[in-house]
Each structure stands twice: as structure tokens, then as C-alpha cells.
Amino acid sequence: MFDDDPTNRPRDPQSLTRRRFLGATLGLGVSATLAGPITTARAAEPAPGLPSAKVLEKSPFAYISPLKSNGKESACHAELWYAWIDEAVVVTVATDRWKATAVAKGLDQARIWIGDHGLWRTWYGGTNDDFRAAKNFVARGERVRDPELLERLLAIYETKYPEEIAQWRGPMRTGNADGSRIILRYTPAQ
């Protein structure tokens, strides 16, 4: 799922529902979805490292790594549900997760990869760095408390993740209302 599963349930390495669903939704066979990143025809590139608008809108996951004060990446890269809203990558995470606390501590720069490059943490405890082969860009993150933005985010999640959103919609709304979750908006650096 994504890196801050509020149910804290163990990840099932055999659970490929998300990939099978997204493969069918995006017109890819299951084997293509499991094999690696989504490939699409590219329009004119908007900026170095920034994927096309179509890729930003349609790809299923963002891999976001907050940058430390020395400019190096954090160890946190998990695949996240996201939406491309108003020229920014928008996610919602638990406030105690590193992505949220990094921004709160003033570490507002992050490196972002877009696409489906597999689970970042492997079932045997290792990591999968396939996302590193994709384009990446640096963005400035900010914490946002905005019920209207949350509803826009959830509306996109309804169409991008229809088989899974039912179990997350309530916790995301409740968490953003009670302060246990926060919206993070990452605007690409110019």
C-alpha cells in the first residue's frame, strides 16, 4: 500500500491487486504492470526531470524522498498514492511520518520520481531501487490544512484507486480533521 498504512497490517508479498487493477485501468497487461514502469508516449517536456502532464496525472505512484540539510536524500522512498493538482504533487500522510516531520522541521526540499516501479521495500527486508532509473525532479514541500484540497485529492483517488479507496477515504478524512494526518503539497522547483 503506501508507507503509512494506519491499520499497521503486514504487507502481503502476494497481494498484487493494486498492480492488476492499475494495469487493467491504464490498458497494460498484468505482466507489463509487474515488469516495471509505465511507459507512455511523451509530449513536449515541461522542464528538465519533470515528466509530461499526462504521466503526472495518470501514473499511480510517487516516490518521494525528503532531502536532508546537506542535500542528500533521506532513506524514505516508499511508493505513495498521489494526485497532480494545480501543478503540484499532492499526498496525505500521517503527521508522525518522516515526510511530514521533515517539512515541519524546515527540510522542505524533496526528490520525486513518478510511475510504478514496484514496492520500495521488498518482502524480505531489502529495498527496490528501480524507481531511480526514472526521471526525477526536486520540489518544495509544504504542509497544508485545507478541507477543499483534501476533497479534490479524494475525488482523484476515487478514479485512480477505485478498488481500494473505500478503506482509506474515512481514515483520510478523519485524520486530516483531527490532525493525525496532513496534506503535503510538493511544487516542482523552477
Order of helices and strands: HHHEEEEHEEHHE
Strand segment tally: 7
Largest sheet: 7 strands, antiparallel
CATH class: Mainly Beta
How would you explain this protein's 3D organization?
Helix 5 (about 145-160) packs antiparallel against helix 6 (about 165-180). About 35% of the residues are buried. Helices cover about 30% and strands about 20% of the residues. The model is unreliable at about 1-45 (pLDDT under 50). It has helices spanning about 15-25, 30-35, 55-60, 100-105, 145-160, 165-180; strands at about 60-65, 80, 85, 90-95, 110-115, 135-145, 180-190. It is of the alpha+beta class.
Key descriptive features of the protein:
about 190 residues, alpha+beta, Pnp Oxidase, Chain A, seven-stranded antiparallel sheet, 6 helices, 7 strands, about 20% strand
How is this fold's topology laid out?
Layout: H1 17-25, H2 30-35, H3 53-58, E1 62-66, E2 79-80, E3 83-85, E4 88-94, H4 98-104, E5 109-114, E6 136-144, H5 147-160, H6 165-178, E7 181-188
Antiparallel strand pairs: 1-2, 1-5, 3-4, 4-7, 5-6, 6-7
Helix pairs in contact: 5-6
